[in-house]
Amino acid sequence: MSGSGTPILEVKGLRAATAGKTILKGVDLAVRPGEVHAVMGRNGSGKSTLSNVLMGHPAYAVEGGEALFEGQDLLAMDTTARARAGIFLAFQYPLAIPGVTVSTFLRAAYRATKGVDVKPSEFRRRLLGEFRELGIPEDFAGRYVNDGFSGGEKKRLEILQMLLLEPKLAILDETDSGLDIDALRVVSQGINRAIANGVSVLLITHYQRILDHVAPHVVHVFLDGRVVRTGGPELAREVEARGYEWVEAA
Amino acid sequence: MNDTAAAAVRPEDAVGEYRYGFSDPDRSVFKTPKGLSEDVVRTISAIKGEPEWMLELRLKALRHFRERPMPTWGNTEILNAIDFDAVTYYVRPADRQGRTWDEVPEGIKKTFDRLGIPEAERKFLAGVSAQYESEVVYHSIKAEIERQGVVFLDMDSGLREHGDLVRRHFGTVVPPNDNKFAALNSAVWSGGSFVYVPKGVHVKIPLQAYFRINSQGMGQFERTLIIADEGSSVHYIEGCTAPTWSTDSLHAAVVELIALKGAKIRYTTIQNWSHNVLNLVTKRSQAWEDATVEWVDGNIGSRLTMKYPAIHLMGPRAHGEVLSVAFAGRGQHQDAGAKVIHVAPDTTSAVTSKSISKQGGRASYRGMVKVHSGATGVKTNVRCDALLIDPESRTDTYPTMEVAENDARVGHEASVSKVGEDQLFYLKSRGLSEEEATLMIVNGFIEPFVKELPMEYAVELNRLIRMEMEGAVG
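Above: the input entities. Below: the structure tokens describing the complete assembly.
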């Protein structure tokens, strides 16, 4: 089910730097509503920088180009406004917030992004429902956010947030890294559920592996701060079979 | 020493930032002239109709105070600037004490209303001992506690009605010559609480006292003595909030706790003095055989606080804990900490100190753990965590350890963290504003403290922290 019409996300000639070094050197891509785009690239190619810049991380300076979300200038909005507009970033390395319970955090995030409050009992019911779907035990709600979590637990919590907050666009930054095969399956099911509900996805990954579970409509190969090739799902398999050197050489 | 916190607070800043800074028109009936003299001390004692021994103690303490040099640590710049002649040492707000809520003057009630005291009273207060200016004007004790034989009085009444008990214990934990400010308190003390819990009695509801300063340039010198007899337990809560005035207000309280064999005392404080108050308090306790003392100490307000709740573990297997939070905002210096003295064998202790500094505020942890010779089998652990909200703020740690026994197990951990860009980014990516995100990080940081508070205090503390954090960002 490929979308049509105005892109939900349109990135044109985007350049960005961190610590004085230019990382993104003119990124172009367009995601239409309901589409799943995979961005593949090796470590250090600038994929994570792309996700951070799209979410407005203060350590990155935009040097040129533009990024539009539903036709609006994304780069003019701060991170809070981007989240409230409907963009979600699943972090590669989610941060710990000691002393703040998962349920307190999620309720605050829900209130902040949806602009509405729900009764604690109703929220809890909803939360526990999502916990069950993702194989998360109930006592998770009372633990402190990402504090002492395993890699797999952190990634599950990120996907849970995506399902709970129901963004329009989810940027998934290396969500598959560090997951064993069972965890990957559960996380992928969560992503597919969100896709079925209509979320658009920018799936950033190093490996083809997750693409066996989550089917992309479009695949971009990312090299040295640019999208160097765009194609259909077959492109991912080709990269997997022949390596990034093949794209580089081409 | 480059001491940013010592820079003077402009009164208009303090007024602008301190939201509880309202005050009633001064309705005091009697006050001593400004300044300290033997006459002032004699007048205070005479007004109260005290026994001769207390007058003698006060006069001796006055001599100690005069001989004693100012401490050379903490915040010496502020300490040395104190003008003791500009302080009023005794003010009486009303001619007699209110015994019921109806008898409390309207103006005072209004102030209490704004602080939410009647609500707290309705919900779970055992008795309110609300100190207004220098004397307790309202003091109610629930029948249940009286039936158990628990004494919960203001200190003046305690001295009148339980003279022998007071004489036996007053000044035994904090002697009048202990330090300069304890000597000052001993000379001019007024009000505070006296609590006696008989053998084997467990006071189920926390006993609470509210303190309040309400007169310009006036000092408050409460004196609290709590005795938990063998096998008893009690939780005492002291919370205070004060109006703002343009001159420094001196507050030098003394609190003495005695937990006899197998007894347990928890003493909880949330101090929220206005940002011109100097809060120089001596809090000390004795825990005898198998007894437990816990200080839960929150410092939010004041310009300078120097306070180091102490526990002397006097009997075998006694246990002590100090859990504290200090919040230092613009122009504030919180010099707080803990002292644990292991005198007897097999005694254990834990100190957890958390501080938050913002807008150039300074939080210091000053602590001492001492293990006496003969105190074998001691276990003690100290943990200090500091959180810096911005780069202008400051935190220091001054730990001292003196351990005379080889088998003591002594732990010490300290950490300093900053509210990180990445943490804020994470929370903002979930739709929280910068302010909401910072507040969430701060609330998480003090959670281990807050969860030890009774519900109403936890709510109040969260509200205070929220108010303090407003405008701290950007």
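Note for the figure: The radius of gyration of chain B is 21 Å.
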